[in-house]
Amino acid sequence: MNAYMSQGMINAHPMLAQGIDELIVMDMVQDKDEGYELTADIEAGQLVFANGQRIPLIAMFLPLLMGQPMAQ
Question: What do you get for the CA distance between the two ends of the chain, in Å?
Answer without folding.
Answer: 32
